[in-house]
Amino acid sequence: MTTRPPARPTRPPLVSVKITDVAALAGVAPMTVSRVLNTPDRVSAPTAARVRAAIDELGYMPNLIAGGLSSRRSRMIAAVVPTIASPMFSAPMQTFTDTMAENGYHVMLALSGYDQASEDAQIRAVLARRPDGLLLTGAVRSPPIRELLRASNLPVVEIWDTAEDPTDVLIGFDHAEVGAAVADFFVRQGHTHFASLSARDPRAALRREGFAKRVAHHGLTLLAEKVLDAPSSIEDGRSGLRQIVGLLGQRTALFGSSDLVAFGALTEARLHGIMVPDQLAICGFGDFEISRACHPPISTVHVDGAEIGEMAAREMLARINGAVTPARIAVPFQILPRATT
Amino acid sequence: MTTRPPARPTRPPLVSVKITDVAALAGVAPMTVSRVLNTPDRVSAPTAARVRAAIDELGYMPNLIAGGLSSRRSRMIAAVVPTIASPMFSAPMQTFTDTMAENGYHVMLALSGYDQASEDAQIRAVLARRPDGLLLTGAVRSPPIRELLRASNLPVVEIWDTAEDPTDVLIGFDHAEVGAAVADFFVRQGHTHFASLSARDPRAALRREGFAKRVAHHGLTLLAEKVLDAPSSIEDGRSGLRQIVGLLGQRTALFGSSDLVAFGALTEARLHGIMVPDQLAICGFGDFEISRACHPPISTVHVDGAEIGEMAAREMLARINGAVTPARIAVPFQILPRATT
DNA sequence: AGGGAGAATGTTACCGTGACCACACGGCCG
DNA sequence: CGGCCGTGTGGTCACGGTAACATTCTCCCT
User: Fold this and answer.
1) Which residues contact A130 (CB under 8 A, 6 or more apart)?
2) Is any atom of nucleic acid chain D found less than 7 Å from the CB of residue A72?
3) Under DSSP, is residue A140 helix (H, G, I), strand (E, B) or coil?
C-alpha cells in the first residue's frame, strides 16, 4: 500500500542559506551559530548578538533534517490513530499536537483505520523517520511490533486503553469497567431490560462486553446487542435502533458506544413515537458536544479526550528528557445523568 | 511560543542496522541496496533477491532522515490547518493524509488556530523540516510568507478558498458566492426578512458578507447579524439564537456559518416554541453528518471536504512530480433543501 | 573482428548540521 | 608566580544515506 514515488531529479535547496553562510557573515565558526540556536547560554552575549544579526540579515532557516541526522534527534513525534474524523481521536490529537508544538516538537500523523495490519504497517513506516517518540491509540497488540518498540528504547505513549503490560506508558481506563458502570447506573434506576448499540472496534467491544456481563451478573435481561461499523456515526445509531426496535420491551435501557450513536438512537426513537426516557433510556459515551447541546441532552460517560492528549504530551516530554514516569496512568471516567435516563 | 527542548545526551540509534550492514551481508555495494529500495528496476533480479534476503534477515529499516538529507527530498508534506476539531478541516485532512500515505508521503500536522501570526509562525517552523510540499488552509495573506514560499519553488496547495492570485495551486470556491446563493435561495422561497449567525473566521465572514450584500441588493431586510467565536460550536449556535431571538420577525430566514451553528439554532428555536421552518427557516453550511441525520434534517450548503482533501493530494503529487497544473480549481457547492426551509 | 550502446554495479563526494575534543584566555588559589 | 579550572570558541569528523560519475561486461551491429 505504501508506494514509493517515482524517481525525480534533485530539487534545488528550499533556501540556499546555510549555517556556514551565517558563520562567515558573523565572523564565527559554524559551530558557534549552532550553539546560538541550540544552547544560547553557552555563547557570550556580544557573539550571540552578532550571530543573530547575521541570521536575520540572511533569512537563515535551520535545516532540521541535517540537524536531526547529526544529533540523532528529530524533534518530531509520530502519532498513529485510527481516524481524526471522530471527536474521540481528534480531541486528544488537537491538544497533544498543540502541547508538543509549544515545546518545539512537530507531530507526524499516520491514520491506521481500524485494521490491525494497517496499524502495524503504519508504525513500521513512521519509524523510518526516526521519531523521538510514538503516540499510539490503544495498547499495541502485535508481538513483533511490541518487541521492536521495546528494543528501540523509544518513548511510546499509548492512550485510550488499559493493559496489564503496556509497551511503555499507557494513559487510559478500563473500557469494560465503563460498560459495567453504565449497567449499574441503569440498574440503580430500576431498569431490568437492556440493549446495546456498539461500534466494531476493540475498545467499544470491551465496553459492550462489560455492560453485558454486568447485566447478566445482576440476573437481568439483555434484549438486543447490535454491532455497528467503526467509526460509527449518527446514521449508524439510527439504523441500529431501527433494527432492534422490534426487540425492545416496555421499558428498556440502551447503551450506545458513542454519543453519536446515542444521538442517532434518540432521534430515531422519537420518530418511532418511543418516549425517552420512560420507554427507552439512553446513555452514550464520550461526552461529545452533541450530547450536551442537543435537546433533550443525552446522559453519557464523560472522558476527557483533550485532557488525555495533554497528559500524553507531558508524559512524552518527560520520557524524552529522560524522566522515569509510571507505566500506567488511570484516567477517571464519570457518568453524567442528563435527560435521557 | 516554540521553545526548544533542553539539550540532552545523544540517543543510541533506533535500530543499529544500516545500509552498509545490509550491503556487506549481501555482498554488494551500499548503493546497490539503495537502488533495490528506491529504483528496483535498475537492479538485476538475482541481486535484488539477495539484497532483500539480507534486509529481511537483519531487519533493516531505512533511515529517511539520512536519505532526505542526501536526496533533498523528505517524502513528507506539512499541513497547516486551524484545527482538526471541526469536520470542516478534519474531513479533508483525513482524505489528504490517506491519499498521500498511499503514495509514500507522510503528513506533518501543524495547528494554527484562527490567528494570522500563529499561522505565519507555524509555516516558518515547518519549513525548517524541508517538506516536499505544503498544504495550507485558505490563501496565504501575509506578503513576506508568500514571497518566501514563491521563492522556494515549493509545491503549495491552498484549500477552502479562492483568491485572485494564489501562491501556487488553490482548490476551493468563493465564499461570498455561497452567501449570495443562500440569500437567493431564501428569496425564491418568498422570504423578506433575514438574519445570520456567523463564526469569527475569515471564510465565514465572507459568506456572511455575501449573504448580507445580496439581501441588500434585493432591497430586503437583514434583521440581525451575530458574530460567534471560531471554531463555532452547537452551543454557539444556541446562545447566538438566544441573543437575536428578540430581533426576529414573524417569518425570518437564518443563515448559519456551519451546520453545527445551524443545529444549535434549530434546537434553541424549538425550545422557544418557534416553528421551523414556518416562523424561522434555517440553512447551514458544510453538509456535516449532523444536518443530514438529525430531525428535522437541516437545509445546508453541500461542499465536499473529503473530496477537496483528495483533490489536494492529487494536485500535490502532480506538482511534486513536476507536472504543471492549473493555478485555481473551482469546487462546486450546492444548496440542499431539506426540512428547515 | 572492432567498436559502440546499454545494462549492472561500484566509487567518490558530498547533503548540512551537531558531538566531541582541543585550545586560548582570564581569574583565582596556594 | 605557576598551575588549575571554567568559559568561550574553533576544528574535525561522523551522522546514514544518495547523486553523479566511473567502470565492467555483454551483446549486437557493421
Assistant:
1) A68, A72, A74, B14, B63, B64, B65
2) yes
3) coil
Whole-angstrom distance, CA of residue B200 vs CA of residue B230: 5
Taking the C-alpha atoms of residue B4 and residue B213, their distance in angstroms, rounded to an integer, is 48
Measured distance CA(A145)–CA(B326) in Å, rounded: 43
Q: Are B228 and B199 in contact (CB under 8 A)?
A: yes
Say whether pTM exceeds 0.85. yes
Confidence grade of residue B326 (pLDDT, cut at 50, 70, 90): confident
Interchain contact B240–A (C-beta under 8 A): no
Q: How far apart are CA A264 and CA A285, in angstroms?
A: 13
Instruction: Name beta bridge partners: B226.
Output: B197
Instruction: Please check whether residue A279 is in contact with residue A250, taking contact to mean a CB–CB distance below 8 angstroms.
Output: yes
Report the percentage of chain A scoring pLDDT > 90.
Answer: 87
Task: Tell me the CA–C1' distance in angstroms for B16 and D9.
Answer: 33
What is the spatial distance, in angstroms and rounded to an integer, between the CA atom of B42 and the C1' atom of D27? 18
CB of A30 lies under 7 Å from some atom of strand D: yes
Q: How confident is the model at residue B132 (pLDDT cuts 50, 70, 90)?
A: very high
CB proximity A46–strand D (7 Å threshold): yes
**Helices (DSSP H) in A165-218: which residue ranges?**
175-188, 202-217
In this complex, which of B71, B126, B321 lies closest to A6 when CB atoms are compared?
Answer: B321
> CB distance from B289 to chain A under 8 Å?
yes
Domains of chain A (ranges plus CATH)? Answer: 73-173+306-333 (3.40.50.2300), 175-302 (3.40.50.2300)
Q: Measured between CA atoms, how close is B213 to chain A, in angstroms?
A: 32
B320 shares contact with chain A (CB less than 8 Å): yes
A41 CB within 8 Å of a chain B CB: no
* A108 contacts A96 by C-beta, under 8 angstroms: no
Q: Which of B236, B176, B246 is nearest to B209 (CA)?
A: B176
A288 near A260, Cβ under 8 Å?
yes
Q: What is the DSSP letter of B173?
A: -
| Residues in chain A where the model's pLDDT stays below 50 | 1-10
Which chain B residues touch A110 with a CB distance below 8 Å?
Answer: 97, 101, 106
Where are any strands of DSSP class E within chain B?
Answer: 76-81, 106-111, 133-137, 156-159, 169-172, 193-199, 221-228, 252-256, 280-283, 300-302, 328-330, 334-336
Between the CA of residue B66 and those of A128, B37, B71, what are the distances in Å?
A: 10, 14, 9
| Burial group, residue A325, by CB count within 10 angstroms (0-12, 13-18, 19+) | middle
Q: Which nucleotides of C are covered by protein (CB under 7 A)?
A: 7-12, 14-20
Residue–nucleotide distance: A24 CA to C21 C1' (Å):
23
β-sheet with B280-283: strand ranges across: B221-228, B193-199, B252-256, B280-283
CA atoms of B7 and B15, how far apart (whole Å): 22
Characterize the bridge pairing of strands B300-302 and B280-283.
unpaired
Cross-chain residue pair B321–A107, CB shorter than 8 Å: no
Contact B130 A64 (CB under 8 A): yes
pLDDT tens-digit series, residues B22-34: 999 999 999 999 9
State the DSSP code for B299: B
